[in-house]
Amino acid sequence: MRYFDQGSGYRVSFSREDAANFTKRWPCSTVQGPGWLEFAANGDLVDRGGKYSDADGPEWVAFSQDCQAYGIAQREKQT
After folding, report:
1. Whole-number Å distance between alpha carbons of 38 and 4
2. For residue range 12-65, what is the model confidence (pLDDT) as tens digits?
């Protein structure tokens, strides 16, 4: 995963490898890479992109929470 500070929020991009690592924990997951998730400063998911930008379901919620936690950790390192 990669973190991008966007001032009022942040973006976390993910690769096929990131998605494959997640799928090891969530068998039959539809999460595939590459793509990105964008979060507001308060952590709310505000946008997503990539091959499966319209995907939804419990595995996508869990994956977005992983990306959110990664982004928060990276943001805290910068302050």
Report:
1. 9
2. 999 999 999 999 999 888 888 899 999 999 999 999 988 766 678 889 999 999
Alpha-carbon distances of 79 from 42, 46, 54, 69, rounded to whole Å: 15, 22, 33, 16
Backbone angles phi, psi at 69, to 5 degrees: -65, -40
Number of domains in the chain: 1
pTM over 0.85: yes
Q: Structure tokens of 31?
A: 């999460």
- Domain containing 39 equals 2-78
Distance from C-alpha of 78 to C-alpha of 6, rounded to nearest angstrom = 13
